[in-house]
Amino acid sequence: MTNIKQRSKDWKSGASKTITFIVTKDCQLACKYCYLVGKNSKERMSLDIAKKAIDYILSHEDDMPEESVVFDFIGGEPFLEIELIDKVCDYIKTEMFRLNHHWFNSFRFSFSTNGINYHEKKIQDFINKNRNHLSIGITIDGTQMKHDLNRIYKVSSKGSYQDVVKNIPLWLQQFPNAATKVTISSPDIPYISESVIHLYSLGIHEVNINCVFEDVWKEGDDKAYESELLKLADIIIDNDYYKDYACSFFSETIGKPLDKVKENQNWCGAGKMLAIDAAGKFYPCTRFAQYSLRDKKECVIGDIEKGIDYNKLRPFLSLDRCTQSTNECVDCEVAGGCAWCQGENYDAADTDTFFQRATAICKMHKVRVRANNYFWNKLYRKLELEGQSKDELPSSNHVNINC
Fold it and tell me: Could you tell me the fold of the domain covering 12-176+271-318?
């Protein structure tokens, strides 16, 4: 458990630039909660577009002074384009070396994959080639019941659990400290507690888990959610899972009033990140590309030919908690740790604004806070009865592992 605190911190203590390549909008799956409403098999990035994007990025070193960089590859399913990705990564490495760029040897290639084709030779060859600069997360939602409820094949509607779980041992052998990300929507609330424990049983020691930000919640979901979280808290504490495993549901740092001066930053990095699509257009993050939006038009901040338009980027750099939240949210007694997605804020807003915070998860956050308080109170009582101090807890249990 001692490694989880280190894993939970942003790479290079948050001093890294995240640059995302949307290499494909295709995927084998049609997950029911997926926010990518415009997935298709036609929009695939070419090597020429990728190279032009890289040339622009590396030639504007002064505009991107972060000490390190994360090159993030997403889809759809990014490993569907592993041949392209392999060539792109080779080009990045050789160009950074040729230019003596300050990111050379201070970079990471990052992937979030559905894990279906993880075992294939061409993917394993890529992993072996780039092992020292890789971060790969496989998404598995928990038990087969929960996973197959949402993560289904787009053609057959068959659940994908069996095709994913068979690759978990290989993944953990290669990345023993890897974490998975679990998504919660209304239908799968009853399976939360058993799913987290199931993931622990597979050997996954860190489970990052969060509710979808979209307005999908039904009457009574919050009560069912609270029941599952309390059950999960009991299981983790009564069976001593807290000693070796982490779950982002429970953190000492959430559910407190805000210091409006010290805690007024934006929740996410929209605007500080950069995303590139198959047409070579630049976005403040992938959630502002058209395939991520239900009701709004894409928000382009430049392209590979003209570069970044800083006038279009400026509004994103001015975003903070107070500029987009109502007084009710800012003054909320449990505001600490209440998250939002900038793209969902824009998509759900009444007008074409970035400054209206979506609050569909409000009641779910408040439930999480109550369950979180229960978890820590019960854990500290147990430690006290056993003659232990909370300072003896593994350090990972004192950090907030964000999803």
Answer: TIM Barrel (3.20.20)
Residue 372 to residue 367: CA distance in whole angstroms: 8
Per the CB < 8 A criterion, the answer to whether 198 and 143 are in contact is yes
Residues 6+ apart with CB under 8 A from 303: 279, 280, 281, 282
The amino acid that residue 92 corresponds to is I
Q: Judge if pTM exceeds 0.90.
A: yes
The answer to whether residues 337 and 253 touch, using CB atoms and an 8 Å cutoff, is: yes
- Which residue carries 């070396």 as its tokens? 97
Distance CA 132, CA 310 (A): 34
| DSSP output for 229-259 | HHHHHHHHHHTTGGGT-EETT--TTSS----
Q: Where are the domains of the chain?
A: 12-176+271-318, 178-268+321-403
In this predicted model, what pLDDT tens digit does every residue of 346-386 receive, in sequence order?
Answer: 999 999 999 999 999 999 999 999 999 999 999 999 999 98
